[in-house]
Amino acid sequence: MKSQITNALSDFFFEYETPRQVLVRNRRVGVVCRLIQLGVLAYIIGWVFIYEKGYQSSDTAVSSVFSKMKGVGYTNVTGTERIWDVADYVFPPQGDSSFVVMTNYIITEGQKMGNCPELPGKHNCSSDADCEGGSFKRTGHGQMTGKCVNTTKTCEVLAWCPVEDDNNIPDPPLLMSAENYTLFIKNSVTFPLFEVTRSNLVEGIDNNYISKCLYDQEDSPLCPIFKLGDIVKMSGFNFETIAKVGGAIGIVIDWTCNLDFNVKHCKPMYNFHGLYGNPDEKDKARASVGYNFRFAKHYMEDKVQQRTLLKVFGIRIDIIVQSLARKFDIIPTLTAIGSGVGIFGVATVVCDLVLLYLLPKREFYKNMKFKYTDTQTQDPDSEAGSTETEVSKK
Amino acid sequence: MKSQITNALSDFFFEYETPRQVLVRNRRVGVVCRLIQLGVLAYIIGWVFIYEKGYQSSDTAVSSVFSKMKGVGYTNVTGTERIWDVADYVFPPQGDSSFVVMTNYIITEGQKMGNCPELPGKHNCSSDADCEGGSFKRTGHGQMTGKCVNTTKTCEVLAWCPVEDDNNIPDPPLLMSAENYTLFIKNSVTFPLFEVTRSNLVEGIDNNYISKCLYDQEDSPLCPIFKLGDIVKMSGFNFETIAKVGGAIGIVIDWTCNLDFNVKHCKPMYNFHGLYGNPDEKDKARASVGYNFRFAKHYMEDKVQQRTLLKVFGIRIDIIVQSLARKFDIIPTLTAIGSGVGIFGVATVVCDLVLLYLLPKREFYKNMKFKYTDTQTQDPDSEAGSTETEVSKK
Amino acid sequence: MKSQITNALSDFFFEYETPRQVLVRNRRVGVVCRLIQLGVLAYIIGWVFIYEKGYQSSDTAVSSVFSKMKGVGYTNVTGTERIWDVADYVFPPQGDSSFVVMTNYIITEGQKMGNCPELPGKHNCSSDADCEGGSFKRTGHGQMTGKCVNTTKTCEVLAWCPVEDDNNIPDPPLLMSAENYTLFIKNSVTFPLFEVTRSNLVEGIDNNYISKCLYDQEDSPLCPIFKLGDIVKMSGFNFETIAKVGGAIGIVIDWTCNLDFNVKHCKPMYNFHGLYGNPDEKDKARASVGYNFRFAKHYMEDKVQQRTLLKVFGIRIDIIVQSLARKFDIIPTLTAIGSGVGIFGVATVVCDLVLLYLLPKREFYKNMKFKYTDTQTQDPDSEAGSTETEVSKK
């Protein structure tokens, strides 16, 4: 017998092992086993590859958003007419992906720094003892001077005077005309892994088209111009409600792309939903209304600094980009195949269990499948015997 | 023969199965098979492990960016000289990751609320009938009063008067000096999965270095101070063009880190490119120019609220952090190995096909590999016979 | 012998192969092999499935954040008392996820456009020659007129005059009262893959609770209202230090959810840490302090445009949402199983190496395991012989 060392290499290259197998001609076991194997095959091909696209790797995008509002608002408060243009009702002005459109406001003009009584309600007092000088109240507008004003029966504070009274929110909202404002969105996404860059101004969405179109889920789902009223409706709000007390709306730009097809088919989808909803609430829309912030315009008058305080109720719009691109990749493909083969192994194991422990002829099959090595007596197999002798010959 | 039940456990622990194999001494099949196996091996080691680093798990970062502009601009419009400092030309002022640097503007001073004629052009009229009172035009500046002004032949509107005339964009841009502004970026990233936090002020980038350095792709790629002119150039724009009509530029901070090495090697890379490009356009840079927004400064004069309206053309800079950290992880490693072994199985299957269906001696090999169990006649194999008899002995 | 072609299909369905195996009754090898296999099993079940939850797929969220500050500040600079409310000290006002709370400031009132001397220090001059007309200095406030002012011995510049002198930062900070401001955070996250939306106002956090609660890591970890002083403390800063020179703090909202449990258990966790730290620094907190920006309020006085320049030192707060949801998924489960089976194969290979190359009786085992096909002489196995003859009979 040749030594293993000398021609191990030639052996290695010119011979190969293939497992010896028992070909069990048994209908029951055969069918069972084939079905299991077919099941595994169906799973791997049907589910992993076709349904879950297991042959692709995926990537999310880095993105950038620019927004621009258009439209003019009109208010008529106690006879004084006023026009609101973009510079007046959008915060911040420079077109971020998150901004607020003012739809209602409480204005407090000509505030000066000074001493004045607090609002009735939370800050009532009967005597100066109730207004500790130099201290603050969490809901107060300023620092208490320690005096209790007789006329109003409230503590006097050092604050921007007169203090804002925001108990009554204008109803109907002052800027219902906001419903007709339009929003233009520019969005570009880059999938670094696949080195693909896309803009929401996809093929065919040229300046000429943009100048005329208005977004509509059915008719023009790629038009990047939206009517504020539509956005509110599509996110399930009632415009008058949200315009009065404010609210937050998310515009989700969904880039789900299969880059195995032409990149032209990688197009955005726009979804709209209310934000900050309370999961408890039945009526999600109701839950998430209510958005406001305070904003001051400062000016000098008669050498005195003054300010106009605006409590702004508005629609806060967050433009959220959500992206997932998939493309064929050899790694996940072979990983899926490889692990699939592994699962095939499981199938065989199951069949063997049936074969060796459940069938009546299991003893017979066991003898076919296994060869024992320890002692002659336990060895059911002439071949093993012959081997033994053959070995002992050495 | 012992019963399986009694000493199943001792059996389980003291014996183990290893498949019986046919050692095919056949040069062709041997070589074919070895090459396939080597191919698989090469793929697993070379591609999965070395090239794709399949032994690592990956994570993206949560990040935070702070930006600060420096520099002074100078304009001389019809003799009146003016200086623009950071507080004047950056929107918003507080150093966000997305901000605008004003490079050109159309200023409309002393606007008051009132009635005045629209601009000639879109709003021409021949009689009051052309100007429906109380209605708005999408491109209009206010609410039409219903009058057609004879002198200008345009509709009269209630608006901020005089209305802005933005037909002529100043050329050359008023703030060409913006080219020399500098931008300082502070960026910190945290990879939660690996609990690693990095700042773009990496080792060696101390205050002393920062006070002197200026970013340069070759010489000082880690200096976090950028000249605006360089940024524009590196993103493929012509400064005068973009300064005139505005444009959007993305500064991508790329953190691609292999944390198996010392964290010191985890350094940022800065890339610059124009945003919102139209994929159709040949000239991407051209496509994505054009960025402006309106901004108003309010003030009181003679007890009348007035405002100065600025139509700002500027360079919008989005600082985008893109991150991918990789580190050794046992799971992907063993998954890769495991599925690799699976693919090995595929290799054997292929070889068997060759062996059993293509080779001339296939019948011979089939008999070597398979043992049939159903009937004596079909059994080519003495051993099976002996087994049969052995079984029948029972 | 039947032809393979005719009833290949019936063969395929009614028979199945199972590998023939040698049952090695050898305590050493047996134990070794079982231990390896048990190890693999333990790894797959214990590590992959239980510890790393390998049966789940994961997803990150798209999120939206709204913040609101409350509280009143008070300053007393050289006798003039002043109150600062939200509209005064928060930048920007509209409640973004990233904003600045002013804690200290240097105010320069009544700046007009004009010529005035630069600050002593960087811009000293002995004669006009030192001040090149029309040029700028990187650290200067404006454009040099070419004159050297005798009184101050500094260059004269065209700038907003008087130029800001920010050499002395007020200490103690003017708005120490900022410590008591409160921050309210509204955050909603959506995991698109699992179609789950959550808000940080989880079950039980109703308006009634919010009106009273204050965040505390132990007692009320779900209360979305934070005291600014606490935030600073929890992120490892000293309030007075950061209030004086400013600093940046990240509030990380961590959504790590196992959606195999009820979604009610998917709750946010709040973490606080300083940003922009220098990795070198021992004392990270020290390293990352220092944050300021300039901000101007414009107004007209006597028909002249003037402005009040504020150099704002403040606490910049970035609210960062970090999310990872996991849920059972069939794909990763079967992939893990499959590759696990693969690794099982590796175990067998290892055992075989022991069996065939290390054991004294290795020759014997080799003969048991392998069957040689090339020549009679090398064939240790009666069976092969019989096959040979059987084949030659054809």
Compact overview of the structure:
Three copies of one chain form a homotrimer. Chain A is α+β, with helices and mostly antiparallel strands and 394 residues long.
Can you lay out the helices and strands and say which pair or pack?
The structure is a homotrimer of 394-residue chains.
Chain A: H1 8-14, E1 15-19, E2 21-25, H2 27-51, E3 56-59, E4 62-70, E5 73-77, E6 80-84, H3 86-89, E7 90-91, E8 98-117, E9 143-149, E10 154-161, E11 182-191, E12 196-199, H4 207-212, E13 225-227, H5 228-234, H6 239-245, E14 247-258, E15 269-274, H7 284-287, E16 292-301, E17 304-328, H8 330-358, H9 362-369, E18 370-372, H10 382-393
Helix pairs in contact in A: 2-8, 8-9
What does this structure look like?
- Chains A, B, C: One of its GO terms (biological process) is calcium ion transmembrane transport.
- Chains A, B, C: ATP binds at residues 68-70, 182, 292-294, 311.
- Three copies of one chain form a homotrimer.
- With 394 residues, the first copy, chain A, is α+β, with helices and mostly antiparallel strands.
- Helices cover 28% and strands 36% of the residues of chain A.
- Chain A has ten helices and 18 strands.
- In chain A, the strands form three sheets. In chain A, strands 3, 7, 8, 9, 10, 14, 15, 16 and 17 form a nine-stranded mixed beta sheet that branches. In chain A, strands 4, 11, 12 and 13 form a four-stranded antiparallel beta sheet that branches.
- In chain A, helix 2 packs antiparallel against helix 8 (330-358) and helix 8 packs across helix 9 (362-369).
- Chain A is elongated, with a radius of gyration of 39 Å.
- The relative contact order of chain A is 0.16.
- Chains in contact: A-B, A-C, B-C.
- Chains B and C meet through helix 1, strand 1, strand 2, strand 4 and strand 6 of B and strand 2, helix 2, strand 8, strand 10 and strand 14 of C.
- Strand 18 (370-372) of chain A pairs parallel with strand 2 (21-25) of chain C.
